[in-house]
Write a structure and sequence with these properties.
The chain is mostly beta strands. Helices cover 1% and strands 47% of the residues. A hairpin with a 6-residue loop joins strand 13 and strand 14. The longest helix has 4 residues.
């Protein structure tokens, strides 16, 4: 079904009278300091950035804000643990508490390991094993959140030694990461099995724990959400987030992410179910996991959008992702200061003077500042950018065109291609 609608369209940032400005980028590390998959979060002192150094000796490194600049990169683990070269690390902070999880490949088994700091990243503990010490299983794809008591909750994937029978596991600590209670299968209620190279993510809401993951049911690779109401002891409620089934013979290598948004969960994810590979956003009920809407953000016909990230505070929302709309990977940002309905189109926030691939965006927002990092694969560096809002002196509404014709799918989402040309598999009504 297709609807032709006549509208006057205005840029959201002009409507709000808020101009997003960016400082010049800062190179955090390059070359021998490593530049693999940077992650950023905030401590009491400001931003801290962690990443992989993939050249020998392989380690995890960090740089933290010291009040006037970022510190010189420093190691936060020893090289004998051999952090994985592609699926981590991940970090969570609360005040000056920092937890880092990563995959260790020091043995053929591979394990999920934890590092912790209680001084804002000045020093870190020795590595602590999170996953089970079971010689019949491998573990990877770790992620982490911190509960209200300051304890880490970790998700990861478990496999047999031949990488078969993947399961999404949630494991928590009650003693600040010194030990873990034992893994719980959070994906068992979903049909098929988890998509074996798509990292899951966690959302915490008091004692409720939500696991977001991509599933594989005979190459139907939809995004799912699983809920625990008892602090992660059991996961009994599961829901499919996709309105249409994404049939793809291969792992997309990216999973959904979400955050609590008042009485709902806001979730971003990659989907190619409509025939266009795009970043979409869901609003999910925290109670019954039903979703009230699904919409794309800024689809570009024939291009691939991937690796979304999300941060929000009240009605201010930022979503970053990677896409190749300019025929080379680059990082884009959509934002709104007035709720999810008013998200802007994609804004390229990377250094425009540098040509070549820019990958793996990560972001965090607090106190009116947006902090972003990404890989500059031209200089083999990690770049940091800070953004802030400035009030416009006059609110100017710029009309793009009157009586523009847009194609909408049956969900009311704008597409760049007529709906009758989209390749979709409609979900059966009894599913």
């Amino acid at each position: 079904m297709k609807k032709i609608i006549s509208i006057i369209m205005c840029f959201p940032f002009i409507l709000f009278g808020q101009q997003l400005n960016f400082d010049n980028s800062i190179s955090i590390s390059s070359g021998a300091d490593g530049f693999g998959r940077p992650r950023i979060d905030l401590t009491n002192d400001g931003p801290i950035i962690i990443w992989r150094k993939d050249s020998t000796p392989k380690v995890l490194r960090a740089s933290k804000w010291n009040g006037s600049s970022f510190s010189q990169p420093y190691d936060i683990c020893t090289s004998d643990v051999l952090p994985s070269s592609w699926d981590g690390p991940e970090m969570a902070t609360k005040g000056d508490t920092i937890y880092v999880v990563f995959t260790s490949t020091a043995t053929t088994q591979s394990s999920i390991m934890l590092l912790k700091s209680f001084d804002g990243g000045t020093s870190f503990s020795d590595t602590i094993r999170v996953s089970e010490n079971n010689p019949s299983h491998k573990f990877r794809m770790g992620n982490i959140k911190i509960d209200n008591n300051g304890n880490p909750i970790v998700s990861y994937m478990q496999y047999l030694l031949n990488w078969s029978e993947p399961k999404q596991i949630v494991n928590r600590s009650t003693d600040y990461g010194n030990s873990f209670l034992g893994g719980v299968n959070a994906s068992q209620s979903a049909p098929g099995e988890p998509c074996d190279c798509c990292k899951a993510s966690l959302v915490l809401d008091n004692d409720d724990i939500y696991l977001l993951f991509r599933n594989n049911n005979s190459n139907e690779r939809n995004s799912y959400i699983s809920k625990s109401t008892d602090g992660g002891l059991t996961f009994n409620l599961v829901s499919d987030l996709d309105d249409y089934d994404w049939i793809v013979n291969g792992c997309p290598a990216t999973g959904p992410l979400g955050m609590v948004n008042s009485d709902s969960l806001l979730i971003v994810r990659r989907s190619g179910a409509t025939g266009n590979d795009e970043i979409v956003i869901n609003n999910i009920s925290k109670v019954d996991l039903n979703h009230s809407y699904t919409r794309n953000i800024d689809p570009v016909l024939g291009k691939i959008q991937d690796y979304p990230d999300l941060t929000l505070n009240g009605d201010t929302i930022f979503i970053a992702w990677q896409d190749n709309r300019n025929n080379i990977p680059d990082c884009f940002l959509s934002y709104s200061t007035n709720g999810v309905e008013n998200l802007s189109l994609g804004i390229k926030f990377t250094d425009s003077l540098i040509t070549g691939p820019k990958l793996n965006p990560d972001l965090v927002f607090k106190n009116g500042l947006i902090h972003l990092v990404y890989n500059n694969n031209v200089a083999n560096s990690i770049e940091y950018i800070k953004g802030f809002f400035g009030q416009l002196s006059t609110v100017q509404e710029t009309s793009i065109e009157n009586n523009m014709n847009f194609d909408f799918d049956i969900l009311g989402r704008k597409n760049n291609v007529p709906f009758n040309k989209l390749v979709i598999k409609k979900r059966p009504t009894n599913k």
